[in-house]
Amino acid sequence: MNKNILIIGAARGLGAGLKNIFSDHQFKVSTIEKDAWKSLSANYQQLALNDYSLILVNAHLAYELGEFLDYLFKTTAEETDLIIIGSMITQTQKSEWNQYQLEKIYYDQCIRQFQLQYKNRFILLVRPGLIDTDLVMDKVGKKMPIEVAARYICESYLLAKKCDVKAISSSFTG
User: Fold this and answer.
1) What confidence tier does 88 reach under pLDDT thresholds 50, 70, 90?
2) Which of 8, 37, 46, 159 ranks highest by number of CB atoms within 10 Å?
3) Of 83, 85, 78, 84, whose CA–CA distance to 135 is shortest?
4) What is the pTM of this model?
């Protein structure tokens, strides 16, 4: 099995934890940071996506995600797996306008549509709860350590591959 992984958004927090845990599992990890991603977003062919057995999207790409996934599924081999890090915010009701929540709901809908359309592709949508990073310092509640969340995501992927499961949506909290 080709164990090359591309992580989009691995500079800090969960992305850095994912980079470490996948490396521990003998994956060759490449990363693209969110700022570099912005310069590539109109020119995805520069990414050489077929070099990877797994593409993990951790960065918040807003509405560009749907366009990128469409390109990804049309141009990569069926063996290229995908993990998208979503958000538990899609499971809550808020009375005020929340652009971030709308974008994450869009993510969920894109992933569900791609899971239906590309039934032979491995697609894992993960919605972790609060993870103890600098992005949620102001949030109240129990926060999961980065290492625990990263390990859960990696081991969920490895187990699903072992069991030949294709489409999974998973939510978890600390």
Assistant:
1) low
2) 8
3) 85
4) 0.85
Number of domains forming the structure of the chain: 1
Q: State phi, psi for 56 to the nearest 5 degrees.
A: -115, 120
What is the extent of the structural domain holding 56? 4-172
| Segment holding 171, helix H or strand E | strand 167-172
Share of the chain above pLDDT 70, in %: 84
Amino acid of residue 67 = E
Residue 60 CA, distance from chain mean position: 9
Task: Give the H or E element holding residue 102.
Answer: helix 99-117
Enclosing H/E stretch for 123 = strand 123-128
Phi, psi torsion values for 129, nearest 5 degrees: -75, -150
Residue 157, pLDDT above cutoff 80:
yes
Mean pLDDT over 25-49 rounds to 79
Residue 90: what are its φ and ψ, rounded to 5°?
Answer: -70, -15
State the CATH number of the domain containing residue 18: 3.40.50.720
Provide the edge-to-edge strand list for the sheet that holds 28-32.
Answer: 28-32, 4-8, 54-57, 81-85, 123-128, 167-172
Q: Where are the beta strands (DSSP E) in 9-122?
A: 28-32, 54-57, 81-85
What pLDDT, on a 0 to 100 scale, did the predictor assign at position 6? 93
| Strand 28-32 versus strand 167-172 pairing type | unpaired
